[in-house]
Design goal:
By secondary structure, the chain is mainly α. The chain is built from four helices and no strands.
């Protein structure tokens, strides 16, 4: 977290950049809008696979409680992945 003085200094530098080269500042703002606000579905797919594999390893080693917790994480990741896919269809 930036202090009030640091925020003012940062804003002053931003204002100088905008005044010096407005085209550069506009390209920076447009690139910033293109950045994804949430992880891609491939990130969730990898997390699901890793959770399932860890669950199987834990079950093989006879650790049922950690396996249950890891399978819960896999279910959460799959729910989030479905949520991301569903919200993209609405856009």
């Amino acid at each position: 977290m930036l202090s009030e003085h640091e925020r003012k200094s940062l804003r002053a530098v931003e204002d100088l950049l905008i005044a010096d080269d407005p085209e550069f500042a506009a390209s920076f703002r447009s690139a910033q809008r293109r950045l994804p606000g949430r992880p891609d579905t491939s990130t969730y797919t990898i997390a699901i696979c890793a959770s399932v594999m860890l669950t199987l390893v834990l079950l093989t080693l006879s650790f049922p409680l950690p396996a249950l917790m890891t399978s819960g994480a896999a279910m959460y990741f799959s729910w989030r992945r479905a949520h991301v896919l569903f919200s993209r269809k609405d856009q």
